[in-house]
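Example (one chain per record):
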Amino acid sequence: MKKETYKIKGMHCASCAGTIERVLLQTAGVRSASVNFASESVLIEFDDRVVSEESLAESVGSVGYRLDVGVQTKKEAASSGGTSETISIKVLGMDSPHCAMVVQNALKKLPGVKNIDVDFSNQRAKVIFAPKKLTVSDIFKVITDAGYKPIEEEGEAEEVLDREKIEREKQARILKTKLIVGGILSVFIFLGSFPEWFSFVPALLSDYWTLFILTTPVQFWVGWQFYSGLKLLVKYRTADMNTLIAIGTLAAYFYSASVVVFPDFFAKGGIAPKIYFDTSAIIIVLILLGKYFEILMKGRASEAIKKLVGLQPKTAKVLKDGKEIEMPISEVQVGDLIVVRPGEKIPVDGKITEGDSEIDESMVTGESMPVHKTVGGAVIGSTVNKFGAFTFETTKIGKDTVLSQIIKMVEEAQGSKAPIQRLADLVSSYFVPVVVAIAILTFLVWFFFGPSPAFNFALVNFVAVLIIACPCALGLATPMAIMVSSGSAAVKGILVKDAASLETANKIDTIILDKTGTLTQGKPQLTDIISFENEDRADILSFAASLEQRSEHPLAQAILRYAASLDQKSSHSLDKAIIDRAKKEKIELYKLLDFKAISGKGLRGSLQVGDQKIEAYLGNRALAADVGLDVSIYEDRIKKLEDEGKTAMILIVEKRIKGVLAVADVLKEESVKAVKILQQSGIDVWMITGDNERTARAIAGQVGIKNIMSEVLPDKKSEKVRELQAQGRIVAMVGDGINDAPALTQSNVGIAMGEGTDIAMESANITLMRGDLMLIPETIKLSKQTMRIIKQNLFWAFFYNSAFIPVAAGVLYPFFGILLNPIFAGAAMAFSSISVVFNSLRLKNGGT
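Predicted structure:
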């Protein structure tokens, strides 16, 4: 499956978006299509083996629109010289769907622009352009003219983030300076504007010319950034929140300035007209205060990616001709041998070739305990080597490393659009022109039908409508919550691919858990040693391990691992007495003289025990029958083991049955607890496995699952998911293997265990980096918290805008004599944006 974003040309309303989505979803090979009307783009997930980009373009073209897949026609190639360049730009200040639309509309008017991809959540724009027609400085100039700060994204990710941080800090310093100056001047302007309230104020401060002089620097220096909105209106014929603020405050300022310069013209009946310098100055300062807090808070919201990027080491010690050479990480190649000493960060992904160590993988997996790694063990770039020194071979570099993929997934999740956001996008795109129209209508109604002085009432209400209606809070409501929650999830070891998955996770009512590697550890372990006829169980272990020492079979490996380590946890049923004796005697394997695997039955071997050559067998009932032994007297004990889902292996030495060893893929420690929590939260839990029903029921019984799908072939797992979905269920599939990939893709939410295969993780919507089942209820909890925060944000943003615009327009005045002072409108607007940011940041602390 391939997932790409394309630009669409020809859309002019929300119904166009619906038409395009329908035609794409009817195209063979297309899994999903999400059209963003505000940014005129579509995110399509499709199988490129079934449908090509050209076919997608043809489907969209069949309903009258153009899908830009970046394929040039001959005419376009000729006109552009056949070449194109791509530039990725960080656009500081572009933090809502409307801002993205403004930047995009401005860039679209440039000659030579072929494609624009705008992601406001990560404040990023990607522009494909013809260098013969357009330069990078032209692109930067247009973005600057639109009121935003462009930074080119080139070099290492850490350098880009450093530049962004420096620029953000610079913006914060400038805003702080303007706020201090503007705040001090505004206090004097406010005191001087109401001498009847503040009798202690000197007459000079109440003079109109003094107020005019004090207000002018606030209007044109402190509030300079808002005039980009006017440039947009005049030069690019589009509008944003800055347009509303600029029009509103300038209307108040120029009217008041006219009163100062031409007092006689405005005087009627000997009464001096009112001035509104305080209105424009205080509104500008309050809105800048809101912007200042937004800049500070947004820096906190993107901390997760900064932490991840900051993990990456800058150099590596590479072995070249037997010598260690320290080189930049960008020069490391796949296959290079790298030396890592205690306390150092592992530079890139690889496999250990020499040595062993304890490695702290907490920043990637969320697992607090160091993980022991030996020769052949995989190591993850940017994790910390705690104790031993080792050499490893590089397997992945650059964008292919685990950490780079995590960063990419987090960024994609933060930049993706949740279904609930569509309404907010749509409202934001129409909001500014509608508000301007309402403001003009308000002015006209008050001017022609309002009480005297009609112009004053008309002006005040005109300004109040423009200021109260800024759509910032609406634009921030969803992406801010998604950004914080996906970053918070990444720190816990939960990687969410897209916002839609985060939204769907809170609706899950059915979870299917794959048995092997998900509920269980995925590696068979020795669980029981049962002796017959008072045989010594430590001897049984010695004989079995000696017979298996040349076998690669997983059951053999389980016995050998146990014999080698002797550190199995007390949860297994092996007696402490065996462990103690084995440790004291330091079990040594007998020499294996000859060895033969007997297909479907077990194995036979000759062992050198002292001076004797002893024949021994290890296998099932059929092998015992071949040797000529009757196991019926031990059948009850063997069957009991098998009923518990274990594989029983009979040990025969010198034609005598000495005992039975049982091997099983044991449950993970947290499986029972995780299943119980899911069931208590009202979720229907199923287990799916290829094992026979008896084994499946044994494992399910241990973990407390009643719903079982046994003997399911790998290619049938997705069908089982479809069967449950056909009953109207929202299904999550949890798996770790290649055979789980189709089911993970079919489910509403696919959850992959991080210890599993790359294919499983690519097919899933959510990846649990440390394979801990307790992260599943944590994911659902986070989803519910995120949706609760988003709904709170949207409610207050919609409520605020819909409730206060009529009040600002003055509809309550005829009934209650209530008008909304533009100063309070400015304060309320700033508060609404800040409240959305702070409410979203609660997700960092669990939504409390």
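Caption: Residues 349 and 380 are 5 Å apart (CA to CA).
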